[in-house]
Amino acid sequence: MKPIYKILVLASLANHTNCNSINKNPASIRDFDKTLQPYLFEIVSKGIVDYDTAARYIQKNATDKDLKQLSISEHPVLRALAFREILERPTFNHFEIMMNNLDDTSIVAVDDGEWGIRFRRVSDDMLQNGKWKDTAAKKKTVEEIILKHNSLSSAYYKVLDLETQEIYYPYIKQMAQRERNFCDDFEQLEYALSALAAYKKPDDIPLIKQLLVSNISRISGTSFGLMKEYPNETYLEIYEKFYPRSFYREICQGQNFNTAISFINSIATYKNERSERILSSILSRKPFTPCLTDTSTLKSELIYAIWNNPCNAYTKIRGQIKRFVKNKEPEKETDISIPPLVLDTTLFIKPKSAEPVSWW
Asked: How many angstroms separate the CA atoms of 110 and 123, rounded?
């Protein structure tokens, strides 16, 4: 099936699939003013939440009453659009709207601009467009989704914002063990595993290891951060499986140095013979990578990761890099006295928003 047709089919299914009973009496398009109906039909036919002509017409001409009715529409794409506009209008209680609609898990296609079309739950889209009066109000929302709606992508993206308290532990473990579906990325599971690791419970280590090993080609810097922050000898198998195939694939095919750098800084902290073998292999490879790419940053990260983790196991490779470290002495700063620039800061002060706390 061609990609464009696949997107249209999925969008159509998303618009006609409701995972939850949002309302026993959902609003249909014929329930709205006739001036709005053609635009609502157009939005539903397209099946994508974006800011095209039809959507902008609804935003400009729909009354608060219309939007409230749209928020219980039988079409998920209209509900998502309604929530976006509701959260822009001060006439609604935004906190109440969000807290009362966290169970809207119907999936909609969303135009993410340069990122293309993505699929997102209505409630996730609502949260990503939400704003709160203060961090305490936002924290209540995060707690609510962790404790009662933790299948949402939003729960995974915010699980690391919570304090490591025992009340959250069973829910976080549930999240870590849940199989994610087509509209979720593995990175979400990595966040849950990182939150789980923070509890430092020995019984969780085999679970964390098994999930990372079974997804070895997909792990990112988040996982390497986990293994660095909460080290355990059993995790060395993960490093050994990731290197060299996935390590160099990230660099050469994905042009992603962030994961490779995280890998290097993480494995270096283990300071044993197994970590030395990997670091030595990276250091001595000729050419440095199996592809044509600028590796200067990667080389520097490798050198300083080894140098900043002195141990007996690294004696030989530290000897190999010693001259490079000595040649990279920090340059002395020149003291140049420049009179301070005085700015009229009142020119840059923006009006204080009633709800300054956003999701991201």
From this structure: 13
